[in-house]
């Protein structure tokens, strides 16, 4: 038996013994599906915490991280097996969120030893939840235009400015930010990547309400916020490189989580077609919709295989600019899937509330609308295409 086969057996035995029965079959096991942890988390089912603890003991909350930082020191191939087996049992990852998907791997690449030892074990234990302070009112796609100022005062920086679209800032304990430390340099060269405790005086997250009534968004204001210089990740004024590396992790994780979201795949669309469309002789009568479902099913299947290959083969820690491909394909496939689901459900797919719509219909409408945001968050599809053209394909810029 090969080492990987032996590891698979070991994982199966571990899951069989320790995975709470109540959590089996409940989750697609993606990097954003499950318990987000942090000090502000409302009370959860004790099984969720038991699951987190038993996995943390084995280093399985962050399996590829070195043991000294709370991981299991596994190779990516071994970690891929762990997630595959959890997925096969429908188990959620034990703890999820931006700590694992973004700042953790970035700290491993660029953080000082002190920062790694301070933050990584807390992420791995689910103690600290992180949010992302990148976007500003004048810096979205043009992220290098960030204006939030950080002025040096001895061993501290003093932060002043505003971030926007900070998802879940009100529920987070720490925020990672891109700040302007040099206004006279070329804009990419005067940015610093810094970690800020949300409890620091002067940090104020404010909820942004959306018409849907449910919103992850906050604006986050910084007024004379004193942050130790030792919280800088990488070098002062060189945060653009660190910030881009983090985005590659974010995009790869969006790609893999959306590529495997519930509701994905041909089976769900066929189930939907059973509820809403006419069938004859075991087939959907509408030949056009039938063909579109089959085609999307094949593309999604191929994409799943690509995700598996990427997860197993990636050698270096950072997924690089190619992560933009995963992000574009996954998010646009998801939108296509929901458009098709909508065509299948007709008016039943447009319900927002009231009689005449069941829980599935209402959930569908919300997910369909949410899918519109997937091609914006983490950088819009237009920006991803620019990155793919320039960084991956090396195409010349059109002047
Ligand atoms: C659900 C969700 C969660 C988010 N969470 C966070 C978060 O936690 N933290 C955070 O910092 N940010 C977050 N964001 C913000 C997100 O990163 C920005 O919305 C995104 O980068 C786009 O910026 P913008 O909204 O300012 O749009 P703009 O930059 O104003 O773009 C508007 C339009 O112009 C297009 N465009 C702009 N420039 C170009 C160009 N050069 N070439 C071609 N087209 C272009 C864009 O593609 C877009 O269609 C979130 C966004 C969403 C939707």
Fold and architecture overview:
The protein is built from eleven helices and ten strands. By secondary structure, the chain is an alpha+beta fold. The protein has three domains: 94 residues, Butyryl-Coa Dehydrogenase, subunit A, domain 1; 108 residues, Butyryl-CoA Dehydrogenase, subunit A, domain 2; 132 residues, Up-down Bundle (Butyryl-CoA Dehydrogenase, subunit A, domain 3), CATH 1.20.140. It has a four-stranded mixed β-sheet with strand order 1-4-5-8. A four-stranded antiparallel β-sheet has the order 2-3-7-6, with no helix packed on it. It is globular, with a radius of gyration of 22 Å. The chain binds flavin-adenine dinucleotide. Flavin-adenine dinucleotide binds next to strand 1 and helix 11. The site of flavin-adenine dinucleotide (FAD) has 18 residues, from strand 1 and helix 11.
């Amino acid at each position: 038996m090969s080492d990987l086969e032996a590891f698979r057996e070991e994982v199966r035995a571990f899951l069989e013994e320790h995975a709470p029965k109540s959590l089996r079959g409940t989750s697609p096991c993606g990097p954003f599906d499950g318990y987000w942890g942090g000090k502000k988390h409302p009370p959860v089912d004790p099984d969720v915490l038991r699951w987190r603890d038993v996995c943390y003991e084995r280093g399985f909350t962050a399996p590829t991280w070195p043991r000294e930082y709370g991981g299991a020191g596994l190779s990516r191939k071994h970690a891929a097996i762990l997630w595959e087996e959890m997925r096969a049992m429908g188990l959620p990852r034990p703890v999820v969120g931006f700590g694992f998907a973004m700042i953790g791997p970035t700290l491993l690449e660029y953080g000082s030893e002190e920062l790694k030892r301070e933050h990584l074990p807390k992420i791995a234990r689910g103690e600290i939840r992180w949010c992302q302070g990148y976007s500003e009112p004048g810096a979205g796609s043009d992220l290098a235009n960030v204006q939030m100022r950080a002025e040096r005062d001895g061993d501290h920086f003093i932060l002043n400015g505003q971030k926007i679209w900070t998802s879940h800032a009100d529920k987070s304990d720490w925020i990672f930010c891109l700040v302007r430390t040099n206004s006279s340099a070329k804009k990419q060269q005067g940015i610093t990547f810094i970690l800020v405790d949300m409890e620091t005086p002067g940090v104020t997250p404010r909820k942004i309400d959306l018409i849907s009534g449910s919103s992850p968004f906050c604006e986050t204001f910084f007024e004379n916020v004193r942050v130790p210089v030792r919280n800088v990740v990488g070098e002062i004024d060189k945060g653009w490189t660190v910030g881009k590396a983090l985005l590659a992790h974010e995009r790869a994780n969006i790609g893999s989580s959306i590529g495997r979201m519930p509701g994905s795949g041909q089976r769900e669309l066929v189930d939907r077609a059973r509820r809403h469309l006419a069938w004859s002789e075991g087939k959907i009568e509408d030949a056009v919709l039938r063909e579109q479902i089959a085609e999307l099913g094949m593309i999604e299947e191929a994409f799943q295989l690509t995700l598996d290959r990427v997860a197993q083969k990636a050698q270096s820690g950072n997924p690089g600019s190619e992560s933009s491909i995963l992000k574009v394909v996954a998010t646009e496939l998801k939108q296509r899937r929901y458009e098709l689901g909508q065509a299948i459900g007709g008016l039943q797919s447009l319900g927002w509330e009231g009689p005449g719509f069941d829980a599935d219909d209402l959930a569908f409408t919300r997910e369909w609308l949410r899918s519109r945001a997937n091609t914006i968050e983490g950088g819009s599809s237009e920006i991803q295409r620019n990155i793919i053209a320039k960084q991956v394909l090396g195409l010349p810029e059109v002047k």
